[in-house]
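Protein record

Derive tokens from sequence
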Amino acid sequence: MEVGVRVTISPSESSTTTPGAGAGTLLRRAWLVWSVAAACYFVALFHRASLAVAADAALARFGAGPAALSVLSALQLGIYLALQIPAGVLADRIGPRRVITVATLALAAGSAVFAISASLVGGLAGRALIGLGDAFLFTNVLRLAAHWFPADRFGRVAALTGLVGGVGQLAATAPLATSLRVLGWLGTFLGAAALTAMLAVLAWAAVRDRPENSGHGGAGERPSTSPEAEPVRAALRGVVGTSGTWHSFWVHFVMMGQFVAVTVLWGPPWLMRAQGYGAAAAGNWVLLCVAGFLVGAWLCGQFVAGRALRRERFVLALSVLLVAVWATVIGWSGVIPAALLAVLLVLIGFGGGAAMLAFDGARAANAVHRSGLAVGTANMGGFTAAVLIQLAVGGVLRLTEGLPADPSYRLAYVPVLLLVVLGMFGQARQSRRVWRDSRG
């Protein structure tokens, strides 16, 4: 397993990273830079999750059916997935500041196109731009964290970044539904576009790739080599040839894929059509799932991140629990009791929050100058699962149109269970390889 060369420095030594600045000043600057970048990620999650809440309005506006809606979501997530390796390369090569600014502008443009479009083609163009902007943000925010924070804080900062994204998803539930009701389609999405464009300007003004005179490593850490000195192909071989990277891929595959299945598209329709809730109540249930995400991200950042053995055991145990959750969703005939539904949705959300541990593992398994590429590779896991789920669920629903909603959705969720099981076995296999590699 390849790791970067690390050196431990005292607080007094860290103050030399930026000439004339104390360690406290440097840390405050790090949090300021991260906060602006994380705000861009916040709006990315808002735009990503907005389709789920606006699903019924989108169907009416574009004159489309559920299958077309799944194409809208799958296109957005597919673009996100396809661009994770380029996102990692650009994070390592040209720096997060430029990428974050341009990506946030793409989100603004996508929201504006989505707002003014009255046809499915226009809707597809808008969601494609949103997928494009979204694809580059998370990886670059974490690459920024690798530059500005010590390595032993990276896992907690990654979890905190996920927490910010979860709050962005909260903004895309009840607040978005209220905005659609009060401001309408055009006012809501054009307003979101304007605010996002303003944030892009702020990112360009406030974000810097790294502390001055810090080289290419994170604060308190020297890189093993300069990123410009290593060809992209060699860096990619190093990342994908590391067992820890693939373990992180499968962790994200399980945790994030099933969470996206519920919050980005299929949760509200299932809750309304198969479970009998109104639109407002379904939004509140999704809100509960996102709350589980926030709790999972925070707890994992506090008590699991940075502890390799604990992280490995925890994610495997949680994967087994998620298998039981989805088996219950599929196996329960009729309306699920409210108390049980609350537990299931919180656990689904908790798993999404725990997906942040994948980036802690990917960063620890790879050299610091490859951290953007490593995070991008791990991030592909959950969104590979998400794209497969969106298409599979939509396909099964189309095949079972003649059935009542309850059995139709239960059958449609079978692919989710199968993919969670696949990812669980993938984790177990890579855990054995990591253990074998560590023994020499």
Q: What stands out?
A: Confidence is low (pLDDT under 50) at residues 1-21, 215-225. The longest helix spans residues 174-206. DSSP finds 18 helices and no strands in the chain. The CA atoms of residues 171 and 277 lie 21 Å apart.
